[in-house]
Amino acid sequence: MKIVVIGGSGLIGKKLIPLLRARGHEAVSASPSSGVNAVTGEGLAAALAGVSVVVDVSNSPSFADDAVMAFFTASTRNLLAAEAAAGVGHHVALSVVGADRIPDSGYMRAKVAQEALITAGPVPYTVVRATQFFEFLGAIAGGGGDGDTLRLPTAPMQPLAADDVAAALADIALAPPANAILDLAGPEARSIADFVRQSLAAAGDKRTVVADPTARYFGAALDARGLAPTGAARVGPTRFEDWLARAAAPGRA
């Protein structure tokens, strides 16, 4: 089976493609660097010829509200139209757990708009809402302030390893379309502040993390559900402590 990974040169795409190839499928990366631009539509028709499944793990180069909305809506409209014309049988898209609960985040609004286009679109689909990745905890720390003291929310999160995201997407891409939105999370739920505090300590970062119920997440208010799933979710196997130990091992970034 031929599978095209939109955004195949990114963090998840580079992990996903080898997994699909190891299972005997033809997995191809499609991104602007390979001459395929979903935002403009450039190269899509040729890239999707003979393709059974498209997995969209692309991300906006800008997180400014208008730019990120334009990116996800334009790219998704173009992808769905090209897929329908090419007879693609399954559109898989990576989204974010809690996106529909954080309306004052421009990024989350854009992901909800992307999901709406997919669920109303002409191509059978599976939308996978993942929690934040362990790999993003450093960026989340940066959202807590610029000095030696970081103020981060007490709201819960249930992050997971990027490797587990790629493994789940490989399984989902090879399965029939669910025509549903599925949640994917890590095995442990704790506060955002707690995860970031442990991540910084493991990296030798001396900044102090203050758990603040009023702290915002990149400017957005979180409710008691935070960034964790509230219903049934597929759970990745990698525990945070194990991921930290591997990340600290010699030869690992």
Structure in words:
Helix 3 packs parallel to helix 4 (106-119). The protein has a single domain, classed as Rossmann fold. Helices cover 36% and strands 18% of the residues. It is an alpha/beta fold and 253 residues long.
Short structural summary:
With 253 residues, the chain is of the alpha/beta class.
Order of helices and strands: EHEHEHEHEHEEHEEHEEH
How many structural domains can be distinguished in the coordinates? 1
Please tally the helical runs, counting DSSP H or I stretches of 4 or more residues.
8
* CATH class wording: Alpha Beta
Strand content: 15-25%
CATH architecture: 3-Layer(aba) Sandwich
Mean pLDDT: 95
Write the CATH fold name: Rossmann fold
Cα-atom Rg, whole angstroms?
Answer: 18 Å
* Class from helix and strand fractions: alpha/beta
Cα distance spanning the termini: 33 Å
Beta strand count: 11
Summarize the biggest pleated sheet: 7 strands, parallel
Shape: globular
Low-confidence stretches: none
* Fraction of residues in H or I helices: 25-40%
CATH superfamily: NAD(P)-binding Rossmann-like Domain
Strand order of the largest sheet: 2-1-3-4-5-8-11
